[in-house]
Amino acid sequence: MGKITFYEDRSFQGRCYECSSDCPNLQTYFSRCNSIRVDSGCWMLYERPNYQGHQYFLRRGDYPDYQQWMGFSDSIRSCRLIPHQTGSHRMRLYEREDHKGLMMELNEDCACIQDRFHLSEVRSLHVLEGCWVLYEMPNYRGRQYLLRPQEYRRYHDWGAVDAKAGSLRRVVDLY
Question: Which of 70, 101, 91 is nearest to 151 (CA)?
Fold first, then answer.
């Protein structure tokens, strides 16, 4: 089980809302979010309702302002608890849509997809085991996308605006 607390003001001040499960519409509880405390679990936050818009991956810890979680603004409108992870992680990356072209398999974190696989874009992928976070830039920077076990035939399927792929990180058990 996870627990996250959202605060309207920086440094854990102002109105707050505590959450322990997925919430598709947080805007009924607060108007802005400037700090967050994650007591347990791993979470993906979204700037718009219904798990849309920019995504932000947070682990247990304190985030006294939105820049600490690489936020673009104080807008957090939905959140998702990432399931408890045990066992292995495995995914396949493809250079073309619909799982075509060159395929690479991955079962560990990758700080730079370009260095490892000589690809700067990933057009489709298949998460076989575990949850992952895809970052648009190397070294776990830039926009973030939660990847759960399923097939993603196009980069739009994971919410991306383009096929940029810089790094991948497994969501490991941090509970």
Answer: 91
Answer for the pair 7, 36: CB distance below 8 angstroms, yes or no: yes
**CATH classification number, 90-170, choose in 3.10.450.350, 2.60.20.10, 1.10.472.10, 2.40.260.10:** 2.60.20.10
State the pTM of this model.
0.86
Q: Tell whether domain 3-82 is in CATH 2.60.20.10.
A: yes
Q: Along the 175 residues of the chain, how does pLDDT read in single tens digits?
A: 799 999 999 999 999 999 999 999 998 899 999 999 999 999 999 999 999 999 999 999 999 998 888 888 889 999 999 987 778 999 999 999 999 999 999 999 999 999 999 988 999 999 999 999 999 999 999 999 999 999 999 999 999 999 999 999 999 854 4
- For residue 100, the cross-strand partners are 96
